[in-house]
Description:
Elements: H1 8-17, H2 23-33, H3 48-57, E1 63-70, E2 76-83, E3 88-96, E4 125-129, E5 133-135, H4 144-148, E6 150-153, H5 156-171, E7 179-182, H6 192-203, E8 215-219, H7 223-232, E9 237-241, H8 247-253, H9 262-276, E10 280-286, H10 294-304, E11 309-315, H11 329-341, E12 346-348
Helix pairs in contact: 1-2, 5-6, 7-9, 10-11
Amino acid sequence: MLLYDLDLPSLSNLLAEWGExxxxxxxxxxxxxxxxxxxxxxxxxxxxxxxxxxxxxxTFTPFTVKTFLDSSDGFTRxxxxxxxxxxxxxxxxxxxxxxxxxxxxxxxxxxxxxxxTGGSRRGARxxxxxSTQAGCAMGCVFCATGQLGFKRHLTSGEIVAQVxxxxxxxxxxxxxxxxxxxxxxxxxxxxxDNVMAAIDRLNDPDGYNLxxxxxxLSTVGLVPQIRRFADEKRQVNLAISLHAVDDDERxxxxxxxxxxxxDEVLDACRYYIEKTHRRVTFEWALISGVNxxxxxxxKLAKRLAGLLxxxxxxxxxxxxxxxxxxxxxxxxxxxxxTLEQAGIPCTIRMRRGIExxxxxxxxAGAFVA
Length: 369
C-alpha cells in the first residue's frame, strides 16, 4: 500500500490498531508532509520497530524516474515517471520571476540538482504542472494526452507524490513550491474523488500547507462535476478549457462538446460563481485561422458578458497528432485587445518548455526525440 494514499484519520486508525499511541500518527504525517521524508529510516523520532513495520506494510515511492528533460533556458524541467504497474506519467516544474538569474546549468547535470539561488526572490514562482490520470479519455484533438487515450486514474497518493518529488528537489536549493496546476495528463474531474483527496492533503495546514488559492484545477467542462465542486465551496482556482464559441466548432476539436453544450458549461460556471463568489478562468488555445480572429473574440466576449471571469489565452503548442498551427503574436494581441475592449480581462500566457514538449497539451507519457 502507498502511504500517501492515507489521510490522517485513516493513518491514525491504523496506528491505533497496531497499538501505537495517538501522537505517532501526527509524527508520521509531519515527517511526510513537513519534513518531506520519503524513507522509513528518516523517521528517527519513531521507534525502530515502528519504522520496520512501516517499511514492511507501505510503499513510500509510487514511481521511478525514467528520465527528465530541461528546456534550453534551464528554467523548465519535465520528468517522466513510471508507475508501479508500468504506466507512464509526466510532471513539469516551471520557474518564473527570476529574470536576472543565469540559466541554472546544473539542471542539466544529474537530477535532482538545481542551481542554488539562495531562496526564491520576492514574486518568484515555482509552479508545478502535475498529472491526475495516465492518459486521458476526453480526446481533445490538439492535446497529446488526449491523442494517447485513457489508461487509468491515479490514486490520491500518486498525485500527491508528484508534488513532493519536486518539493524535495527545490528544498535542496532553499526554494519551495509556490503553485500547483492540475493541468498535466488527464481530466481532473474525471478522477474527482482522488483529485479532491490529493488537494485536501496538500492543503492540510498541519501537513504540506499549500494554500488552496495556490492550486488551480483545469477541466474541459464536465458540468455535473463543476456543480458539485461549486457546492463544496472550495477556494481552489477553477479553469475551463473552452477554445470555441460555437458548439459545432468545439465538437470538431473537443469530443466532450457532444455531451455538454457551451451553454450548459457556462450555466454551470454561473452557478459556481454564485456559490463561491470566485472568478472562473477560461483557457483558450489560439489556433491560427480557427479561433484566433477578432470576430471570434467579439463572439466570445458576448458569451462571457456578465460573468466574473478571465480569459487565459496561449498560442497553440505543437503536437505530433494535430496539424493546427499557433496563432501569431500579432493575432494573439489583437484577440486580447478585442476582448478587453468589450470588458473581458485577458492575458496572453507565457509559453514554457515548448521544445521539450512540456507545454500545455504536450504531455504524452513519453518523450519525443
